Amino acid sequence: MHAKKIAAEKAVEWIQDGMTVGLGTGSTAYWAIQSIAARVKDGLSIRAVASSTSSEDLARELGIPLVPFADVETIDMTIDGADEVDDQLSLIKGGGGALLREKILAASSRRLIIIVDASKRVKQLGRFPLPVEIVPFAANLTLAQIKALGCLPELRLKDGQPFVTDNGNWIADCRFRTIEEPGSLETQLNLIPGVVENGLFVHRASSVIVGYEDGTVQTFTR
Ligand SMILES: O=C[C@H](O)[C@H](O)[C@H](O)COP(=O)(O)O
């Protein structure tokens, strides 16, 4: 917990007055939202756009000025977590099911700052099952197409029913074990009709801030 919090606080130091800030989702982004709220209370003037209803609810509760997705054209900085980060700063995201909105934010952000604890760093992506957002219609056909790319896809369940994303879609968690070429897999997956988006974020992170339990942080920049 401490490691996530200090990585988040480091990233929030980079936010400046007047910025439009993208809010990530998850237990690490939670600390960033808390820290942004503290700075807003101290007079920081920003507006924020959230990557999930849970982050939006939290930000609203804490008094962070929010702007709807539909009203935003560019984002200065997004701060978000990740499930895996490799040495090239490529990522797997979507463990919390927010990958579509997160990728929309990432694609339109001048800077994407990823905050993680040391357990998220890997030599090669793929041990964490890759989340792929699919449309519920004909899900089995889509899962079969995904499987043909060399993985074991499993429909994510919640209380025995398919987990439904904020966008009304389902998530397939895909066990690849190792992903040799993340960039090409990211493209291949999105070419399958029925796939909405996948959790590979290749060449998108500007910086990754790693927090450690001893209170130190390490920053990697592309
Ligand atoms: O959909 C969820 C997001 O991609 C999260 O940023 C990711 O799962 C990491 O979450 P956490 O910080 O809770 O490990």
Give a structural overview.
This protein folds into two domains: 2-121 and 202-221, Rossmann fold; 130-199, Alpha-Beta Plaits, CATH 3.30.70.260. It contains six helices and 15 strands. Strands 2-1-3-6-14-15 form a six-stranded mixed β-sheet. Strands 8-11-7-12 form a four-stranded antiparallel β-sheet. Strands 4-5-13 form a three-stranded antiparallel β-sheet, covered by helices on one side. The chain is 28% helix and 28% strand. It has helices at 2-12, 27-41, 53-61, 99-107, 139-147, 182-190; strands at 20-23, 47-50, 75-80, 84-85, 91-92, 109-117, 130-134, 152-155, 157-158, 161-162, 170-175, 195-198, 200-201, 207-211, 217-221. The longest helix has 15 residues, at 27-41. It has 222 residues and is an alpha/beta fold. Ribose-5-phosphate is lined by residues 24-29, 80-83, 93-99, 102. It holds the Pfam family Rib_5-P_isom_A. The active site is at 102 (proton acceptor). It catalyses: aldehydo-D-ribose 5-phosphate = D-ribulose 5-phosphate. Keywords: Isomerase.
Q: Please, how many helices?
A: 6
Average the pLDDT over all residues and give the rounded result: 97
CATH class division of the largest domain: Alpha Beta
Class from secondary-structure proportions: alpha/beta
Low-confidence stretches: none
Biggest sheet: strand arrangement: 2-1-3-6-14-15
Distance between the termini: 26 Å
Strand content: 25-35%
Tell me about the biggest sheet? 6 strands, mixed
State the domain count: 2
β-strand number: 15
Percent of residues in helices: 25-40%
User: Shape from CA axes?
Assistant: globular
Order of helices and strands: HEHEHEEEHEEHEEEEHEEEE
The oligomeric state of the chains shown is single chain
CATH architecture of the largest domain: 3-Layer(aba) Sandwich
What gyration radius follows from the Cα positions, in whole Å? 17 Å
What ligand molecules are bound, each kind once? ribose-5-phosphate
- In CATH, the topology of the largest domain is named Rossmann fold
GO molecular function: ribose-5-phosphate isomerase activity
Subunit structure: Homodimer.
InterPro entries: NagB/RpiA_transferase-like, Ribose5P_isomerase_typA_subgr, Ribose5P_isomerase_type_A
Pathway: Carbohydrate degradation; pentose phosphate pathway; D-ribose 5-phosphate from D-ribulose 5-phosphate (non-oxidative stage): step 1/1
